Amino acid sequence: MRDFLLDAYDRAFREEVRAFLARELAPRAAAIEDDDDWSAVEAVVAALGAAGYLRLMFADLYRGSLARPGLTHATILSEEASALSYAFETTIATALSCAYPLHRHARDSVRDRYLPGIVDGRIVGAICVTEQDAGSDTSRLSTRIEFDAARHEWVVNGRKRYISNAGVADTYIVYGVTDTAAAPGNGLSVVVVPRGTAGLSFPRRYTFMGRRGCVVGEVAFDACRVPADHLLGTEGAGMRIMREMFNFERIILGGSGLGVARSAFDIAVAHAQRREAFGAKLGTKELIWNDIAEMSWRIDAAELLTYRAAKLYDAGTAPRELMKPAAMAKLVATETATFCADRTVQILGGDGLTKEHGRAEQIYRDARALPIVGGTSEIVRYLIASADLPTIKPAL
Ligand SMILES: Cc1cc2nc3c(=O)[nH]c(=O)nc-3n(C[C@H](O)[C@H](O)[C@H](O)COP(=O)(O)OP(=O)(O)OC[C@H]3O[C@@H](n4cnc5c(N)ncnc54)[C@H](O)[C@@H]3O)c2cc1C
Q1: Atom 12 of ligand 1 has which residue's CA nearest to it?
Q2: How many CB atoms lie within 10 A of CB 68?
Q3: What is the C-alpha to C-alpha distance for residues 186 and 378, in angstroms, rounded to an integer?
Q4: Range list of H helices, 85-160
Q5: Is 129 in the pocket of ligand 1 (CB under 6 A)?
Q6: What is the per-residue pLDDT for 126?
Q7: For 195-234, how does the pLDDT look when each residue is reduced to its tens digit (9 = 90+)?
Q8: What distance in Å separates the CA atoms of residue 36 and residue 213, rounded to the nearest whole number?
Q9: Taking Cα atoms as reference points, which of 378, 370, 394, 395 lies closest to residue 136?
Q10: Which phi and psi (to 5°) does residue 185 adopt?
């Protein structure tokens, strides 16, 4: 079933990018995990940019060998990178999520200033949505974005938490409230805040149970001023831009989940065929083969849903119609990743818990973030059901 929805041209791209990552990422993956080595992350981001792989999403900017680049290829990149290092992949996934609204909604002057550095891999970007009191419920955002007509500038005040690439990014896409009188969620707008802006600071960096080597922290905006043209889209368009961005991000996350699930599965399969217990290989035991079978069908299901969503995106599906397939891809692929990571550790027994026997324990720690980031499993279930129950507005 592998790659069922991909054509020969997509598969050739997978081989190309796999060879590239084996050369550029694999030798640095241990430094990223063990030494929290940001310079190793930067080196791979730069190599990806130089090779043109961060432009895959943008047909007008792309200059590589693909005739029809798109989200399918960015998802393949996400899957292949996550199979080697999910922590690393989060850095480029975030940079691409930042590039996406810049490409689509920025005025030319702003797009030309901030986008090339990201797609060339010279800098990374960050997306700033989440706050202390506004996680899943983005209608509770309290960051204020106000227009100072006298100086023709936007002024940003607020504090964001759990922001990937905080402090290491050069470009921050910031969601905040411009119209406090609007219904919750309707008065949101988005501005670009570059590093170096007075009042922009990074009060803390978090330590997570996994994803070592990637940077996640707080971002504070204390009367940060940016020129009027730094608004993305129109005033009040924040929710629509966010919805589009999350569709994109959730399909990329489908690829991440798949890559993580696949790498766990490969470890479990090898171990079940090698390890002996009670006079036979572990893989002959019914309880173990049941686990292997369940991982296997879940991975296939995740793959089909993820590449269906990517292909729908590339075919130009409207954001509203894409919401459900993107949510399904994210839900199934990320839950598959945690399932496979958990069962792999179990199949390895003690070997699954120590760093001395390979990556199972790292994958287990890394995978746990997947059903939380980019819309939790609960929230994406709501999105799926809301498409199926259009006459009902559930109380979330
Ligand atoms: C490693 C990491 C990186 C991140 N990177 C970024 C980033 O770059 N930019 C950014 O803006 N954010 C980022 N986030 C934040 C992430 O998007 C949020 O953590 C996520 O949206 C959930 O918000 P929360 O943590 O506040 O949990 P909450 O929203 O408080 O939810 C807590 C739990 O309650 C559940 N829940 C909430 N509402 C309901 C409901 N109505 N019904 C049932 N269950 C419900 C949730 O599903 C969850 O299980 C990151 C988070 C992590 C962990």
Answers
A1: 130
A2: 12
A3: 22
A4: 86-105, 108-119
A5: yes
A6: 97
A7: 999 999 999 999 999 999 999 999 999 999 999 999 999 9
A8: 4
A9: 378
A10: 95, -20
Each residue's pLDDT tens digit, 295-347: 999 999 999 999 999 999 999 999 999 999 999 999 999 999 999 999 999 99
Q: Tell whether ligand 1 has an atom less than 6 A from the beta carbon of residue 337.
A: no
Secondary structure in 3-state letters for 341-374: HHHHHHHHHHHHCCHHHCCHHHHHHHHCCCCCCC
Residue ID of nearest Cα to ligand 1 atom 11 = 129
Residue nearest to atom 42 of ligand 1 (CA): 396
Taking the centre of ligand 1 as the mean of its atom positions, its distance from the CA of residue 135, in whole angstroms, is: 5
Place of tokens 């179990």: 346
Count of all residues that appear for the chain in the document = 396
Q: Whole-model pTM above 0.90?
A: yes
Answer whether 234 contacts ligand 1 (Cβ < 6 A).
Answer: no
Give the DSSP letter of residue 150: T
At 1, the pLDDT band (50, 70, 90 cuts) reads low
Question: What is the mean pLDDT of the segment spanning 361-385?
Answer: 97
The three-point CA angle 389-391-395 to 5° equals 75
CB of residue 162 inside a 6 A radius of ligand 1: yes
What ligand 1 atom has the least distance to the C-alpha of 165?
8
> 353-365 b/e with 16+ CB inside 10 Å = b?
eeeeebbbbbbbb
CB neighbourhood size of 249 (10 A): 23
Mean pLDDT of the chain: 95
Tell me if 369 CB under 6 Å of ligand 1: yes
Burial 145-168 (b: 16+ CB within 10 A, else e): bbeeeeeebbbbbbbbbbbbbbbb
Write the pLDDT tens digit of every residue in 233-254.
Answer: 999 999 999 999 999 999 999 9
